[in-house]
Structure formats: C-alpha cells, structure tokens
C-alpha cells in the first residue's frame, strides 16, 4: 500500500534521511510523501538558496548597472568660485558670480551675504541690487525684493539703452509680479505696461497683465493680452486659457468661456476632454476659435491631415486668422512618396 | 493506486491519521508543502530573471512581465566630464567604450571607458592636413571600429575601438568635395551618411565595399540633415535639422512618417543627433529644445511615431542641457547625450 493523501492531508511520515545522503533526497517523488522534517529541511534549503541568490543577483545587478557619480557641474563651479573669492576677496566679478551661483543652488541667504559685500564696496551696484532682489524673492521677502527692483529701475530708467534694457524690463516684470502677489492689480498693470513697452513679446508679462486686467474688470484689454500670450505659447501653458475663461465668464460670453476652458484642458495635456467640448462649439460664436483649437488638438496628436482640415475651416471663416495661418503653415502637406530605390549592396569585406 | 515510498531501499510503513503527534495541526504538512512549492516557484523566477538579465543586460523594468511597465523616458545616472564642447557621441554595445567628438578645445575625438576615464584620443594622421573638426561618430557593429565624420576635411576617419587611427574611408566612386555629417550603421553593417554637398542634401547608403548603393532624400529638400539612424525593421530616421523635421524612410525608400515643428507633443525645434535602441525607441536630441525627445519606432503600417516623452530642460544642473547635439544608446538600456555647452556627456538609464 503506498502513501495516501486524504482530504489533501499528508498522512504518513517516514524515517529521517541522513543529510549526507543527498542523492536519496531525489528518491522522494512527491511532496505528499515528505514528512514534516523533510519539508522543513527543504523549506530551509530553498529559502537559503532564495535569499543568497537574491542578494547575489541584486549585488551583481547593482554593480553591473552602476556608473560612478560625478560632482554636479554647479558644485564644481561653486567650489572654484569660492576658492576664487578666498584668493581675491576684492574681486567683485567672482563674488558676483558666486552669489549668482548660490541663487541657482537655492542658497539665498549665502547669496545675500555676497551681494551685500559687493554693494558695501560700492561696485556693480545695478547688477548686485538686481541679484539681491532675486535672492529676496527666493526667501519670500517680497517687500525687500520690491525695494531692490525699484532700485534697479531708478538706476536703469535714465540710461541710454533704457528702452531696450532687458534688466530694466525684468525689474518692471518682477515689480508687476510682486504687485499681483500682493493683490495690487492696478499697480501691477502700471509696471507690466512698462515691461511690455521694452519687450512686447514677453509672453509671461502678457499673461500677467491679462490676469491683472481680468482682476480690474477690463475684459477687452485682458482678452487682447491673453490671446497674445497664447499666440506665443499655444500649447502646454494652460494658465492664460484659464484666465480667459474666467474673464469670458465674468463678461457673460458663455461660448467663448467654454472654448477657453476646453483650450485649458488641451494645454493641460487633456486632449480627450478638450475634443468633445471644442466639437460642440463649431456652430457657435466661438466657431473660429474652436476650429483653430481642434487644429491644434489634432496637431498635438500628430494627426496633421485632420489638423489641416480644421485650420482650413478656420481660415475659410476668417481668412486673416493668424493662429490658423500659422497652424496650416506648420502642418503642411502629409507624407510624400519617393521613387523606389535600388536594392542595397550585399555587405562583404571591409571599407578602405 | 499510489507508489510505495522508500528510504535507502527500505519501505516506509504508512502512518495512520490518528498517529500524528498531539497538538500538531493536521493541515500543517500540506501548508508546508504549499510553502515549499511557493519558494521553489520564487527560486525559479529568480533564476529566470537572472538568466534573462545575463542574456540581454537590460534593466529589470524591461522585463516583459505583467505588472512591470518600463518607464517611457530614462532617468539621469551620471555624466562624463573632460570633453570640450562635445558634439557627437557614440558608444559600444556593452557601454565599455564611449566615443566623443569635441567641437572645441583641440577638436579631437576622445575615448572614455565605462567609468568615465579617458583611455584614448582619436586624431587623424598628419598627412590628412591640420584642419579637422570631428562631428559625428558611429561604431561598426561587425568590426567595433569607430567611424568619425569630419565635414571640414570632407572625410570619414576610421579608428579601432581604443582610438588608434586605422584608415580613411575611401568611396569606391570618389565624391570630391563631399561633406559627410551624420553617421549610422544598420545591423548588417551598411553605413548611412548624411551628405551636405551637391545640388541637394541627402543620405548616402554605403555598403562594405565602400560603394554608394542608395540615396535618400533626393526629393525632400533636406536642410542640414545632421542625424541618421536605422531601426530593426530597416526604417531610416533622418533629422532634417534646419527644417525642424524628423523624416522616416521605409525600407522601400518612401517617406513613411514625419514629425515636425508645431504645437504637438514632440514638437521639434532643431533636431540633431538620433539613436534607436533595441526596445523600439527613437531618441532625438533637440538642440534648441534643450533635451531629448523619445518616440516609438514605426510599427506595422503605421504612419505615425508615437510620442513617448521628453527628458532634459535647459540648465547646468544634473539632467539639464545646454544645446545637446547628439545621442547614442548602448545595448543595456543606457542613453548617452552630448551636452555640448555644458562640456559633458550625460548618461541616462532605464
């Protein structure tokens, strides 16, 4: 009579097998025939193999995948600049670069020390003041930052290149940004208008002034500014569309608000949400914008043929629509066929 | 009918159910057997994974198992410093040799080992003149030789795997004034070269006897095609750099797909170097996009490259780029990017 398994239970045990007789282990042909000791022994062995194997494989894998880490370039530069400042404490150029690098590393307090040292020496005042303002911004000290940005404006606004001075433009923009953060949209508009007078294509300034116009209820100006912002950055930037949606909602323009909301979805990486919303608008006041939006949507998906169709519809309704013209210029004709090419040669021998 | 169990040839008498020690649950042996089976299963899985890894040397995330999904883009691993404005980069399949073409400094090619230590220099012979700018590189899969294009000299120089000069590629039908730029090999050893000379810019396909056997791009008005690479199906990817396009030529020579400038995902700015890995991914170094776009290779009759993702961004921090120009992949899931104006080659890994 052989071993029996009743109700799934092993119901026999047998004599202990000497450890040294490993070959005998393999004479047990069924788990069901193993007794408790055998099972324990095998569990321990397999567990040991598993643990050792896992550790060994993990170690090998980690070693095989590992590549030695190198010092980040910013740290390399920081070490060199710190040494340069130690070697020549009066070298304001190195000190300024060190302060800027501290800002880049997020070490704003260390940067402040360096900017203050430069300002105490009375050198590079505009640059150091601008840099210190950035450090204050990093520390969240908006009033101190605004004071320094105003200092930059005071220095730069009378300069020969004031109308094209990027630092002055950045200072005005930052003052506008601080004003918006402090809920002073009217002040923000004043600063941002000056920034845009220097750089009309600053999409960030256009967006910010658009939100300031929305906050002050100047919807026409807001729409112009925000549309300009999204003309420069049509995809991947949802905030201007969200601001437009808020403005259109305030103005009671339902279809346009829906279009802007759909475009915010599209810009936010949710084309599947945007598509039905835009398609629902093709027979409304927002038809042209919806058609351009659908063109962008299909372009985003890589469906250039469909994108061209929708840009074409937008142009048919509004031949001067710049976004549609730009869009159709981008998507252009689809893949074109080329004549058949000869069969390649058979690889043989080496090149000389 | 069950077999009789024996130990050392001696039959073991059956044990009655009631003979089990007191307090020992009757189900315990069965549970232990199940535990043992589970452990054996885990051990088998470990052995399978280890064998798979030894065979393919791919990251564990590439395992084709349910529940494991490989990330779409790699993550930053480390960087190699010591090259001045690296323009082109190539790598051996195992990743033990990394080749870099410097567009700055002494404008030579450099050879690094896997740890980032410089182990060689690639310099053309003095007989080839003194005006050289190495641009792109490719490793011959059949000989491990390194081919380096030098547009200024109108030549392709060939070095051994450690950087020793071997010869200059001489075409079977010479093309005086040719301007080789992008280089790639397919798995059969056919060399693909973008050439800026002549009435139209094009891609030349050169066989092992140095004969031009194909020309791509005759009708496509390519403008400074910098990068070229070939996938496993024989599709040829060409970066039409100054038009901001990535063109994909099918094995029959027709344009099967393209990605271009626009509003979509994978919107290219100035696509330069290209690479295809063994997992069906195309990497496009976009200089003005300050990063690398990742697409899937063409499959079936598809006319679109699926956008998988982007990595990078402008800056000097680890993982950021300043005008990356070239990209290469090894066979172990690593991506090498020539971060030109940060003077380094970044290594990313899946």
**Unreliably modeled segments of chain A:** 1-12, 333-352
Mean pLDDT of chain B, rounded to whole units? 89
Distance between the termini of chain A: 80 Å
How many helices of chain A in DSSP terms? 17
Give the proportion of residues in helices of chain B.
under 10%
Distance between the termini of chain B: 54 Å
Cα-based radius of gyration of chain B, to the nearest Å: 27 Å
Output the strand order for the largest sheet of chain B: 3-26-25-24
Element-level helix/strand string of chain B: EEHEEEEEEEEEEEEEEEEEEEEEEEE
Helix content range of chain A: 55-70%
Physical arrangement of strands within the biggest beta sheet of chain A: 1-2
Question: Which structural class do the helices and strands of chain B define?
Answer: mainly beta
Order of helices and strands of chain A: EEHHHHHHHHHHHHHHHHH
Count every beta strand of chain B, where a strand is a DSSP E run of 2 or more residues: 26
Quick tags:
heterodimer, A: 352 residues, mainly alpha, two-stranded antiparallel sheet, 17 helices, 2 strands, flat, disordered N terminus, disordered C terminus, B: 350 residues, mainly beta, four-stranded antiparallel beta sheet
Give a verbal description of the structure:
Chain A is mainly alpha-helical. Chain A has a domain at 81-140. In chain A, 67% of the residues lie in helices and 1% in strands. Chain A has 17 helices and two strands. Chain A has helices at 22-25, 36-65, 73-87, 92-105, 108-120, 125-139, 142-156, 166-181, 185-198, 203-215, 219-232, 239-251, 254-267, 271-279, 287-300, 304-317, 322-331; strands at 5-6, 9-10. In chain A, strands 1-2 form a two-stranded antiparallel ribbon. The termini of chain A are far apart. Chain B has 350 residues and is mainly beta. Helices cover 8% and strands 39% of the residues of chain B. In chain B, the strands form seven sheets. A four-stranded antiparallel beta sheet of chain B has the order 3-26-25-24, with no helix packed on it. Chain B has a four-stranded antiparallel beta sheet with strand order 4-5-6-7, with no helix packed on it. The termini of chain B are far apart. The mean pLDDT of chain B is 89. At the A-B interface, strand 2, helix 2, helix 3, helix 15 and helix 17 of A face strand 1, helix 1, strand 3, strand 15 and strand 19 of B.
């Amino acid at each position: 009579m052989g071993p029996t398994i009743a109700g799934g239970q092993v119901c026999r045990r047998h004599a202990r097998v000497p450890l040294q007789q490993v070959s005998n282990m393999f004479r047990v042909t069924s788990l069901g025939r193993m007794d408790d000791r055998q099972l324990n022994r095998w569990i321990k062995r397999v567990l040991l193999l598993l643990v050792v194997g896992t550790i060994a494989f993990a170690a090998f894998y980690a070693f095989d995948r590992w590549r030695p880490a190198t010092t980040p370039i910013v740290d390399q530069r920081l070490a060199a600049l710190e040494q340069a400042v130690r070697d020549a404490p009066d070298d304001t150029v190195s000190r300024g670069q060190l302060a800027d690098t501290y800002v880049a590393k997020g070490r704003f307090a260390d940067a402040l020390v360096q900017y203050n040292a430069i300002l105490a020496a009375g050198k590079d005042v505009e640059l150091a003041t601008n840099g210190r303002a950035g450090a204050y911004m990093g520390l969240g000290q908006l009033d101190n930052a605004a004071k320094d940005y105003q200092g930059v404006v005071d220095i730069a606004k009378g300069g020969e290149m004031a109308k094209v001075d990027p630092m002055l433009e950045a200072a005005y923009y930052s003052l506008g940004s601080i004003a918006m953060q402090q809920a002073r949209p009217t002040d923000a508009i004043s600063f941002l208008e000056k920034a845009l007078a220097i750089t009309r294509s600053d999409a960030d300034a256009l967006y910010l002034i658009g939100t300031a116009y929305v906050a002050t209820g100047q919807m026409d100006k807001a729409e112009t500014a925000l549309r300009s912002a999204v003309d420069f950055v049509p995809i991947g930037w949802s905030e201007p569309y969200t601001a437009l949606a808020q403005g259109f909602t305030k103005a009671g323009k339902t279809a346009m608000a829906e279009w802007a909301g759909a475009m915010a979805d599209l810009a936010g990486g949710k084309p599947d949400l945007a598509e039905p919303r835009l398609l629902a608008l093709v027979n409304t006041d927002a038809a042209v914008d919806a058609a351009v939006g659908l063109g962008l949507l299909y372009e985003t998906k890589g469906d250039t043929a469909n994108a061209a169709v929708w840009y074409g519809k937008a142009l048919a309704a509004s031949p001067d629509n710049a976004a549609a013209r730009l869009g159709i210029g981008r998507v252009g004709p689809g893949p074109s066929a080329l004549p058949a090419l000869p069969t390649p040669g058979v690889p043989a021998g080496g090149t000389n | 009918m069950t077999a009789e169990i024996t130990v050392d040839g001696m039959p073991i008498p059956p044990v009655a159910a009631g003979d089990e020690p007191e307090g020992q649950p009757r189900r315990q042996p069965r549970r232990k057997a199940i535990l043992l089976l589970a452990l054996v299963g885990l051990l088998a899985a470990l052995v399978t994974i280890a064998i798979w890894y030894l065979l393919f040397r791919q990251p564990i995330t590439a395992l084709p198992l349910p529940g494991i999904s490989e990330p779409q883009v790699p993550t930053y691993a480390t960087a190699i410093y010591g090259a001045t404005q690296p323009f082109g980069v190539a790598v051996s399949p195992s990743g033990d040799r990394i080749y870099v073409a410097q567009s700055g400094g002494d404008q030579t090619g450099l050879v690094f080992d896997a740890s980032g230590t410089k182990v060689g220099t690639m310099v053309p012979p003095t007989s080839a003149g003194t005006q050289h700018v190495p641009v792109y590189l490719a490793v011959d899969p059949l000989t491990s030789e390194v081919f380096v294009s030098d547009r200024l000299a109108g030549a392709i120089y060939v070095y051994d795997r450690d950087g020793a000069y071997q010869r200059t590629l001489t075409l079977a039908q010479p093309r005086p004034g040719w301007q080789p730029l992008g280089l790639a090999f397919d798995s059969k050893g056919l060399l693909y070269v973008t050439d800026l000379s002549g009435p139209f810019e094009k891609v030349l396909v050169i066989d092992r006897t140095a004969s031009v056997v194909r020309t791509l791009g005759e009708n496509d008005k390519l403008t400074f095609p910098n990068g070229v690479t070939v996938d496993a199906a024989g599709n040829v990817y060409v970066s039409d750099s100054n038009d901001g396009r990535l063109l994909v030529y099918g094995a029959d020579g027709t344009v099967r797909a393209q990605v271009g400038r626009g509003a979509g995902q994978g919107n290219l700015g100035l696509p330069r170097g290209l690479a295809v890995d063994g997992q069906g991914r195309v990497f496009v170094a976009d200089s003005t996009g300050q990063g690398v776009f990742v697409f899937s290779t063409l499959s079936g009759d598809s006319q679109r490259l699926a956008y998988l993702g982007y990595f990078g961004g402008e800056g000097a921090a680890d993982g950021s780029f300043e005008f990356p120009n070239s990209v290469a992949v090894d066979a172990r899931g690593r991506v090498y990017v020539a971060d030109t104006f940060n003077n380094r080659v970044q290594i990313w890994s899946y």
